[in-house]
């Protein structure tokens, strides 16, 4: 029955591409998230999760896999034939991909090569977040993410409809339209065309709020000088974006005891934490600073500080931070070449799609995040405590993100009873958890009472 529907739909539209298969019904796991304002608090929104198209079963009418290890050239001798023959199917989220939700929580359990998912709204489009002059907050449990694994949460300037078109019947509901600042060439379908030989890359601006395991974490804007998704070919794919980005990794920036599983770490990765990221703008609306706070055990923890030659102490990503870091650590200048923070901000102004993934790199370790990346004698090459001895394939990994919320600056997190909520040089939240109020003591101190 299922088969005959698929066969007839394939035959009915021979020119169609990126079709939908019907072996497994696509049931998006539901998830809630919140939008917040300072004066009205937070409102719960109902969304759902969809699995990226590349992770899905792509098959012929008879159920043969079109891409067992790269495309099968007998089934897919060229893009048109492949698109006419192959369909993207629904996903068994929990069983095959280890993806489950519960209320506001999303858990990814590593198995079968991890997963990459997106947040959908109630019209089956990707939620298009606008975070300029706003903050984005989530809780995360990284305690079970070991060396060489990465539980990531980031923004990509993907098409909100996933590129739904005459040649793409699947769209956002089936997780199409992925792009990022690496301009990946391994995407099976690019704008409705089957990327049989991997000649097409899919580039877009990317803002990594969270790339982390229990040992290291990194916050990274990756600007590209393109608007929306841009499909590249050949050498051009290496020229449009900043794949390394201007990252802030507390370990790399010299504070090896700020984030980690040790009792002496300031942010303790054995426990759930809240991660706040603020996108501050200047008077002209240009992105001027990306600021990070953690909240754990009711305590607001500002990001670690770094002193870079010629700069006052800084704990947020600013243009000065990026330029100084490039000079001091001899990092690539691609960030500034591609428009830097200003370009990142222009992209975020247009809107961003939320991507959450769990992946690993067991070949050489994920050293750019958590180990030694480069010549040990050079400053800044140590990104975390992981070594080759810590990279093993037999580790179960899982990550849980929950309570995703977005809103005005200072609207998504609050201070606890007796916590500081204002005063000169104070930078944390100025809202107090109910039923407390922020009470002025003196110009240097206000307190939640
Ligand atoms: C590719 O498809 C052909 C035709 O269906 C099949 O005979 C062959 O075994 C497939 N190759 C692989 C590697 O799956
Ligand atoms: C879902 O979350 C609720 C509230 O946190 C909890 O009581 C319940 O056990 C969870 N359900 C599952 C299946 O994990
Ligand atoms: C995708 O293809 C459509 C035409 O089918 C075109 O209008 C659109 O610009 C293309 N998108 C990208 C990102 O190239
Ligand atoms: C993007 O930047 C590269 C430099 O890496 C430059 O060669 C290219 O012309 C720029 N493209 C656009 C559209 O500005
Ligand atoms: C690491 O950060 C914490 C919290 O900001 C600070 O108290 C500590 O002195 C820093 N340690 C180093 C070595 O910079
Ligand atoms: C990495 O391996 C070394 C040597 O076995 C061990 O001492 C260390 O605790 C491991 N670190 C992590 C983060 O697993
Ligand atoms: C957020 O709170 C901090 C600290 O109280 C304050 O300095 C800042 O101006 C507030 N920002 C906004 C937009 O309210």
Automatic annotation (TrEMBL):
Record-given protein name: Glucanase
Catalyzed reactions: Endohydrolysis of (1->4)-beta-D-glucosidic linkages in cellulose, lichenin and cereal beta-D-glucans
Signal peptide bounds: 1-17
Keywords of this entry: Carbohydrate metabolism, Cellulose degradation, Disulfide bond, Glycoprotein, Glycosidase, Hydrolase, Polysaccharide degradation, Signal
EC assignment: 3.2.1.-
Gene Ontology CC entries for this record: extracellular region
Domain CBM1: 413-449
GO annotation, biological process: cellulose catabolic process
């Amino acid at each position: 029955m299922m088969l005959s529907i698929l066969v007839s739909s394939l035959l009915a539209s021979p020119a169609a591409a990126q079709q939908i298969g019907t072996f497994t019904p696509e049931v998006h796991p539901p998830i809630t998230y919140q939008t917040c304002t300072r004066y009205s608090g937070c409102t719960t929104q109902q969304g759902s999760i969809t699995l990226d198209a590349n992770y899905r079963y792509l098959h012929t009418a008879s159920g043969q896999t079109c891409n067992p290890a790269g495309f099968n050239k007998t089934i897919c001798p060229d893009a048109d034939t492949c698109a006419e023959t192959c369909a993207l199917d629904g996903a068994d989220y929990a069983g095959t991909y280890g993806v489950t939700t519960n209320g506001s929580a999303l858990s990814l359990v590593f198995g079968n090569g991890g997963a990459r998912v997106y947040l959908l709204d109630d019209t089956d489009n990707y939620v298009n977040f606008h975070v300029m002059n706003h903050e984005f907050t989530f809780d995360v449990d990284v305690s079970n993410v070991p060396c060489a694994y990465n539980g990531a949460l980031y923004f990509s300037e993907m098409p909100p409809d996933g590129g739904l078109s005459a040649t793409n019947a699947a769209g956002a509901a089936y997780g199409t339209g992925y792009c990022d600042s690496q301009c990946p060439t391994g995407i099976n379908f690019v704008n409705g065309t089957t990327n049989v030989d991997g000649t097409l890359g899919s580039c877009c601006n990317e803002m990594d709020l969270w790339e982390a395991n229990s040992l290291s974490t990194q916050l990274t804007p990756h600007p590209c000088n393109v608007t929306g998704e841009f499909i590249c070919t050949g050498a051009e794919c290496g020229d449009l974006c900043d794949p390394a980005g201007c990252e802030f990794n507390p370990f790399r920036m010299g504070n090896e005891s700020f984030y980690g599983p040790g009792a002496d770490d300031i942010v303790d990765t054995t426990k759930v934490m809240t991660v706040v990221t603020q996108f501050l703008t200047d008077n002209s609306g240009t992105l001027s600073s990306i600021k990070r706070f953690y909240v754990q055990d009711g305590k607001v923890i500002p990001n670690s500080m770094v002193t870079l030659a010629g700069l006052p102490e800084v704990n947020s990503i600013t243009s000065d931070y990026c330029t100084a870091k490039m000079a001091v650590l001899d990092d690539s200048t691609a960030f500034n070449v591609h428009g830097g923070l200003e370009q990142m901000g222009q992209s975020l102004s247009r809107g961003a799609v939320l991507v959450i993934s769990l992946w690993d790199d067991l070949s050489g370790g994920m050293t750019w995040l958590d180990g030694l990346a480069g010549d040990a004698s050079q400053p800044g090459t140590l990104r975390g405590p992981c070594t080759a001895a810590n990279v093993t394939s037999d580790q179960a990994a899982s990550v849980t993100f929950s309570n995703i919320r977005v809103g005005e600056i200072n609207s998504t997190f609050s201070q606890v009873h007796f916590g500081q909520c204002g005063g000169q040089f104070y930078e944390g939240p100025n809202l107090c958890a109910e039923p407390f109020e922020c009470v002025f003591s003196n110009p240097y101190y206000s307190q939640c009472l």
